[in-house]
Amino acid sequence: MSTLDKDYAAGLLDKCDPPCLSLYQPTHRHHPDNQQDPIRFRNLVKELEEPLRQQFPKDDIRTLLQPFLALANDTDFWNHTLDGLAVLGARGIFRVYKLQRPVTEFALVADSFHTKPLMRILQSADRYQVLGLNRQEIRLFEGNRDALDEIELARTVPKTITEALGDELTEPHRTVTSYGGIGDGHSPMHHGHGGKESEVDIDAERFFRAIDRGILEHHSKPAGLTLILAALPQYHHLFHQVSHNPLLIEDSIEVHPDSLTIEELRQRAWQILEPHYLARLAKLVEEFGNAKSKGLGDDVLVQVAKAIVAGRVATLMIEAVRKIPGRIDSATGEIEFGDLSHPEVDDVLDDLGELALKKGGQIVIVPAERMPTDTGIAAIYRY
Question: Is the separation of the CB atoms in 181 and 257 below 8 Å?
Fold first, then answer.
């Protein structure tokens, strides 16, 4: 499965040898609702095929659509979907993203990938990660206010203490017997080498350091998401003490994820994150108000568009669900308003978000009730 945060940050989705195929659809997590998902997917693939037939030879079309058709027949994939799906394909590239939010269903063939729905998800302010940890192994979760799912660790991140320390592992860890399951509230009991308990503690510290480095480099930095620790109370102090991850917050979940359902873990995580989320939005709203009072902020769409093109926008808040149909001249910032039913008309707010990102601005997708304006946009200028 592709990693959206890393692909987007690396600019992979900007690189496409046309034709570029973009397919989005809402999906379902559970039976029987998910039974219709592969059928809808095949219908969307047919929508991709029609415009391709008008311009390209059959062999080229077959090559472009082959990975889409293979995915359509992957029963295991369709039995483990989330709330939405994005599939991007072109010559030499095929990316599949399972999404924790539904997306509008459509299929598009163009000279670039349609990535605006992905940008909206990535820039939403309510996303976070949870690190589940004990002395033996780790798990990583990613979610938002509505959903939480375990994610695959990067290959270079050690999943267990044995992977992390290898031959340097102190002998007692090789003969650990744990009464009860991992995360059941009981610490492992060591047998056969009880005199080396302090060395086992040193191993735990070295394991936590290795985990901290791996998570920071391969997950926290690419995603830029707040990290919450979920572990038994005795591990919190040590992990926070050795961690150099600036995205790890002090508030933690004092239980290992194995002791909770995924929904219980999401509820505990959001209970911790929500005050941070609201504080961040309140701070942005205050910064916007101060900037606007000094002539360094604006909520007038046509003025903000020109400022974005000029590279003046440092932070751009966009209303989450709002859509404003139109086209933007990327050279001047001029807006031509239109109708979304026209194939060349898109959502101005999404286009402005993409432009601002390319100019080095920070984008934050904000719920309507938290926006400081009623125009769908609020910009804080650099100068």
Answer: no
